[in-house]
Amino acid sequence: MRDEKYNPFNELCLTIDKAAKACGLGKEDYEFLKHPERELKVALSLRRDDGSVSYYDGYRVQHSSLCGPCKGGIRYHPGVNVDEVKALAGWMTFKCAVVNIPYGGGKGGVAVDPSELSEAELERLTRAYAAAISPIIGPQRDIPAPDVGTNAQIMNWFMDTCSTLAGGSFVPGAVTGKDVILGGSLGRKEATGRGVRTVVGEIFKRYGIKPKEAVVAIQGTGNVGGVSAALIAAELGSTVSAMSDVSGGVYREKGLDVKEILSFVNGGGLLKDYSREGVQHVTNDELLTSECDVLIPAALENQITAENAKDVKARFVVEAANGPTTVEADVILGERGIKVFPDILANAGGVVVSYFEWVQNNMNYYWSKEEVNGKMREIMVRAFADVVHAADKYSSDMRTAAYIVALARLVKARKARGFF
What residues does the record give for site: Important for catalysis (predicted)? Predict the structure, then answer.
């Protein structure tokens, strides 16, 4: 659900204020984080296959390069706007800081429905967008990656355009999330979902939950939701009771056949057409309020709101999507004793492995999938422990604790660099 009055960047600023107050920071220490370093809007013209021309708005926001090059995905979605991109870029700054990798935050997007374009049209649009934002990006400045509506092929085209504009040089570090043949990292495609699975596993350990007795509901069957579901079911042995896509959701109290559902969806099916004995069709909102131990929103932002937060029945919410819970909903969930593990921790596996991909590109030396997964798990487990420690120290909720961890690093870096 998308509320026209909802401004995700304002929500981010409110969260920063709350965390700063909790750990005793003065406004002068962190006010810079409410002001993105650079915002670029570009007009893109696309020659369609039938010869007509369509026009689209594109954006790239660099929130902070304080701790390293800006890092963040490219989103193709009709709802893309500058406030959304600003918020996503800001979340990336905090996400990179909470997992302690040397990146800042950036994000980009084009207001387009990619399903309405042919493959040739998508390629032309991607190359136009890459060329339009090329003056402000590069391996040491700002490194895009896939996000909603984009994938490895789009990153391949983007990288090829950047390489061409660089005089024909091969510049694999211009983006991450590429195909392996062009310098992509093994393990990158499933990295965000694997990171979510790691966080869920750490929750089970911390709160003494037996994984095989736990019930998990997941909003989304895409790269993040689908991979999370598959790994949680296969590796943890937990029951996945609900899943959804854009057409709606399916629910079965005793558990869904995750492999079958993902095969059905990946084959082009919509869950509204999926039918098996004992499976009920539910709306996305009904999924969010279904009976479960762990709820994983893995779709878009602004899903758990003041309207439905009072009906959420999960013990834990693990934010696989960016910004799925509004500030008002956060308060309601906290008052009800529901622990929310925030996006800047829970879905950070993707940017961690993007960082690994960039490092491998720079070294021109590539790691095995086992090495990638092991290094990512080590970082995610350490970040989880840092956040839990901060929550205990400041008697705060997990979101505030994650921002406290990130703020401490960002403020320290700002003081070390000085004012210019």
Answer: 147
Among candidate residues 18, 107, 178, 339, the one labeled active-site is: 107
pTM above 0.90, yes or no: yes
Number of neighbours of residue 251 by Cβ within 10 angstroms = 20
The set of residues, in sequence order, having a beta carbon less than 8 Å from that of 98 and lying 6+ positions away, is 344, 345, 348, 383, 386, 387, 402, 403, 405, 406
pLDDT band at 3 (very low <50, low <70, confident <90, very high): low
Q: Which residues make up each annotated binding site?
A: 71, 95, 192, 223, 354
**8 Å CB contact between 80 and 110:** yes
Question: What are the tokens at 256?
Answer: 């869904």
Q: Is 107 among the residues known to form the active site? A: yes
* Measured distance CA(152)–CA(176) in Å, rounded: 9
Handedness of CA 227, 356, 343, 135 (dihedral sign): negative
> How far is the C-alpha of 89 from the C-alpha of 60, rounded, in Å?
9
- Please report which residue ranges of 134-220 form alpha helices under DSSP H: 152-165, 191-206
pLDDT tens readout for residues 330-375: 999 999 999 999 999 999 999 999 999 999 999 999 999 999 999 9
